[in-house]
Amino acid sequence: MRTLVANIPLPCNRFLVDLNAALERHVDLTHDHEAFWNMIGDYDVIHLHFPEYMTFEIQHAYIHALSDELIAEIEKRLQYWSERSVLVITRHVLLPHDALSDPRWEKLYETVYRYVDGVVHFAEPSIKEFRMRYADTPFVHGHPEHCIVPHQNYASLPNQINRYEARRQLGIDSNANVLLVFGAIRNDEERDLIQNSFRQLRVPRKVLLVSCWREKLAKVAWIRLKYWLRDLTRLYYRLHPQYRFNYGFVEEEDAQIYLNAADVLLIPRLHVLNSGNVTMGMTFGKVVVGPDSLDVGHLLKSTGNVIFDPARPETASAAIKQAMGLARQNRVGPANQQKALTEWSAAQCADQYVVFYNKLLQ
Q: DSSP letters along 307-328, please?
């Protein structure tokens, strides 16, 4: 089975790297955005992931501006491939994270979905939301087939550092109650949720550990003063041991330091479809707290983790306190890790993708 993954190279996207490697054991897999865009080759399956990253042309528009002309060019490719191959897409997000205010991106996503034969979801709420959102969409080949394949685990990440060593490297006391926020903080709303929840958290020896803190620069005209105030804020956090902030990208080999130092992993999203951090936290045996939103809320509730109400962000503090209690009792975290490692391996998930490919090809 010849399969083309139509996506630009994303070497830091562990999901794509691991899934492609697992799929290669079953199919003749090619990861090539140029073959897709230039309409070259003969493939049984075209597998799409992020429409905004199908090609560099679209990624450039993601950074600058998406035009109707580019959407027409994309549709030309989709029409070409849909007449020759089965088109499958994994639904990662509702819409691109940084383009929610531009209706053209919603148009692009709907255009892509119009041509696909199958949609892979991480959980049932995504299917229900998809059917509601695209209830009136004129699908080119009829309504697509749907299937659920879990987000595979992060067992491929290094995990040799224990809790004591991780905390020693970060300068965190071994008896601290550590709340981790890992990955991008996308907007001021999420930053405020983190700060407010941590301030309201009534837990002794609490520490807020953040892998990439979102800074808010002062609104002053003088550039030097703007960055002097930023540095002063950083100094404040350094002088207060309950804050451990990093301000840049964390390399994959260092992710284990943050995850193994933590007691609880917080997902500070509000309206969100999926988050790989749910699976990441579970892979490392952490109790996970996140919003009761679509797939994220479904997965957290079904595994005994903790949710907060995204319509009432003030509920996050109580949810974190509950999660800290579970972590102290060594509850939920071990079961999380067992489930992630025994049920969500990349090999197991790839098997399910291949079954779905074959179903669509029949």
A: EE-TT-GGGHHHHHHHHHHHHH
